[in-house]
Amino acid sequence: MAGHVIRVEGLVKRFRRYARIRDRLKEFFLRKTRHTTFTALNNVSFTLPRGSILGIVGENGSGKSTLLKCIARVLLPDAGTIERNGKITGILELGTGFTPQLSGRQNIVFNGTYLHMTREQLRKREEAIIEFAELRDFIDEPLKNYSSGMTMRLAFAIAMHADPACFLIDEALSVGDTGFQQKCIARLKEFRAGGGSICFVSHDMNAVKLLCDEALVLNHGNTDYFGEPEEAINRYSALTASHGASGEATDLGYGNGLVRFTHVSITDGHGRPARMIRSGESLDICFRYTCTEACPHVTFGVMIRDRFGQDVFGTNGVLLGSVKDVCAAGEGCFHFPAMNLGPGIYTINLAAHQGTTHLETCYHWWDRASSFEVLQDADYLFGGHTRLAVTLSFSDWWPCKISMCVFLWLPFARNREPMTGNPFLSGK
Question: Whole-prediction pTM value?
């Protein structure tokens, strides 16, 4: 079906902020302004066509969740228009539209009614909802006894069975287990293939790049970019790079402090600040340090860990054949010609010590000094944590088949009845 399911024009949403609770009463009775105004959304506009997926990205506090709540009519805009064509459902916040004291079965009716499902629809789809949510053994238990993952399952199942024209997701699926997340993604793909639209907020740039038709980048409530996901990721990377690709040393870590890191920065192969890179691209981890006294043969090291805290790769000056006599402040850089890691978020730990490991004489171990995200390379798709060079080749299998036939035929040939008068076959 042609057309659009959502059109947002000049959307503005403001909130009042009070320093103290009693200022609300004073403002009401004394008729004097006691608040400051915070603009969460400022002149935001976009269109979501039917059968397409829109990703909304931005730093924390940029207005992403507020935008979805306005679309879902949870919040009313202060200015602008939101045109909706068709039913819109989704998962905005865990537990929205649920009553904890009621059972899961009762909440199906309660939440389904909230989503404009009729009693007849709820009666026919109740079993399908329970089956999809995988909660049959707990469906008559009070919702307050559910885990966050169980609550999310039920919310997703109800929303998807409400026959929406557009599905809104505010990163709620991240609380589910891996198996159910894959099940949800498969269901969303079926939903899109059937003409449904999806609008979701995410910090997962790989999901935005691989799933979305368009992306909206918000920056402090303003539209920074709306269009191709590739360019949206670049814009988002530029926004976050100025805040998170470098930083001053914090108290995270330990050591005697004779040599101490003061600053770290992450740059791409062109020397530009980078918070995101594509798998296989170059990356530089540069650092600055200071010292309180001269220290000979200092080993500088780096450890990269995944989002679970597992060590992915580590090296240091001893292993690289480059140690440093430190007698004054200086700087160094670990250069990775190709960061062959799988998609994901990684943290960086820096170390300054004596010897091969930081367990000998540790000057400074800087825990979680910075982080970066690796995006999937559209020209080289793969799974797992590591990007490896690999090729696939085939050989003609007919010679193998003929050899196998001969191998199987020989015993049969030896056991055949010999021909009369043939000394070779008769063995005479």
Answer: 0.65
